[in-house]
Protein: Aminopeptidase P family protein
Amino acid sequence: MGLEQTQGAAARERIARLRQVMRERGVAAVWVTTSDPHLSTYLPGRWKGREWASGFTGSLGTLVVTADFAGLWVDSRYWDQADAQLKGSGIATVRTSNAPGQSHLDWLATNVPPGQTVAVDGAVLGLGLARSAASQLSAAGLVLRTDLDVVAEAWADRPPLPAAPVYVHALSPVPRTDKLRAVRAEMGVLGATHHFISTLDDVAWLTNLRGSDVDYIPVFLAHLLVEPGGARLFIGEGKVPAALRAELEADGITLHPYDEAARALGALPDGTRLLVDPRRITHGLRQAVPKGVSVVEGLNPSTVAKSRKTDAELAHFRNAMEQDGAALCAFFAWFESALGREPITELTVDERLSAERARRPGFVSLSFSTIAAFNANAAMPHYRATQASHATVCLPGQKPQGLLLIDSGGQYTSGTTDITRVVPVGEPTAEQRSDFTRVLRGMINLSRARFPRGTRSPNLDALARAPLWAEGLDYGHGTGHGVGFFLNVHEGPHGVSPTMPNDITTALEPGMITSNEPGLYRPGRWGIRIENLIAAVPDRKTEFGDFLRFETLSLCPIDTRLVDPALLSREETDWLNAYHATVRERLQPHLHGAARDWLLQRTQPL
Structure:
C-alpha cells in the first residue's frame, strides 16, 4: 500500500471513530476547528484534532463530519494541498472564497435537518465565532452544543500537555512590573477591576517569559488573571524553576495549576468588573464567568502595547535582521555555486537554509516551516515540501529552468524574521521578469508610503496591489501581517489586508512592524512573492498632523536578474538601488569569502 493509500485509510478509520462517538452522543454533525484554548495560530500537538482526523496539515481549515458526509473547508491558499492530502480519505475538499453562503456554517444550516444537534468543542471556540454560529444555526432550527469534545473521545492516543520549562527573555527592555502597571491603568479607564488573558503571546510579553510549547513560536501554555494587587499565572506544574518562581512572586505574580483557570473565573466575587477580549477568549472560558460578575469587552491592552515596539526593541530587531540576512547570503552563495554540480531538491533548500540560520548568534528556531517551492509548487502560497512529495530543482550536469520561491524566517532572541525571495534557476523568460517586476513595484509602493498616524492599516493594502490591478492581476492573500518581538510571526491587531477590521484596532502607530509581501501566482507554472518586514516610524509633523513612514528592516538582496528595468519608474529604481546599498553596508561586516562575494555581486546598482 502506498503512502497516500495508507494516509487515506488512516483518515477513514478516524472519521469512523468520530461517527461512532456522534451516534453514542446523539449528535448529527461535528464541527472541528483549527484552534486551542488560547486561539493560537500554531497549535501544540494536543489540539491538532483537525489534522489528526483528516490528515490535512495546513495551518487553517475547518472539518465537518455528519453520518454520510465529511468535508474540509479551506481557502485558495490550501486548495491543492487539501486535494493531495485528502486523497483516499473520503473527505471532500470544500473550496471557499469571500463570497457569501460558502462557509461551513452555511452548509450545516442547509444540510442538517432542523431539530438536530451540531457539536463543537467550546473550549477551543472563539467567543465571537460562537455567538455568530449559535445565531445562524438557531435560525435554521439547529442546536449548537459546545460542552462536548467529540474529537477527544475518539482520539485514544492524544498527546499530553507539553512540559518544557519557561525562561526569562533577557532582552525584554521593559520590566514586567511596568507592563502590568500600564495594563491596570488601561483597565481603570474601562472601569475594570480584573482582566483575563488567554492569548499566549500576550501572556509571554506581559511576564517577559518565553517557552517552547508550540512549534516555531517561543511561548508557553498559560492563562493570566490580572487583579488590582497582583496577577495569577495558570501554568503547568514544574514548568517554572524555583528561582524564577520566587522572582515572579516578588513582582506580584503567583503560580496556579493550568487547569484551574476556568475554576478561578467561576470563583470571582459578585461586583467584579472583568475585562475580556471577545476576539481573544474562548466561549468555554467566557461561560465560566458567574452572572454576578460584570463583563467589560474590549481589546486586550497588552495586544496594542506589544505591537508598538520600543526604540530598544527596534534596535534589537535590526540586529536580528543582520544575522538573518547574513545567513541568507551564505545560503544563496552556496545555492548558486551548487547548481549543476550537486543534487538539489526543495528539501535540500530547506535543510541548507535552516543550517545557515542555526549558525548565527542568538538563533533559537525557525519562525515557521520553510516554504521552498520550485516552479508550479510556488503557485500554492502555503505549499510545503515533504519527503513524500517534493520537486527536484537541479541534478548534476543539468541545466534547470524555472523560478524558486523561498519564504522563511527565524526566531532570534533579538527578534522574529520573515522574508521571501524568488530567484531564477537558469535564464528567466520575459513573462517571468514582467510578473516579478510588477510584484516588486507593489512591494516598493508600500515601502515608500507616507501616511497620517492612526491610518487604518487595511487601507494601505491597495498600494501594493495597484501595479497588478493595472494589468488585470491580483493575489488571493493579504499583503501583510504584524510581527512580534521574539514572539508570534503573525501578530495583531494590525495588518495590511482587506479582510481585517477597518477600525481603531488596526490603526498604525510608531513601532508597529508588518510584513510587506505582495504576490502573483500562475497555477501550474510559477509563483512570485517578495517580502520584507517594515516598521512604522515617525516621518514629519505638519499642520495636518503627525505623519509616519516605513523603515525597511529585512536585509537581503532582491534578485535583479528577474527585474525588467523598463517597467520601473526612476523613483522605483532609486529605491531599489538605495535598498541594496543599505543591505551591502549592513551585511558586509558579518560575511567573508564566497558569501561576501555573492553579496557584493547581487547588490550592484540596477
About this structure: Residues 167-305 form a domain with the Creatine Amidinohydrolase; Chain A, domain 1 fold (CATH 3.40.350.10).
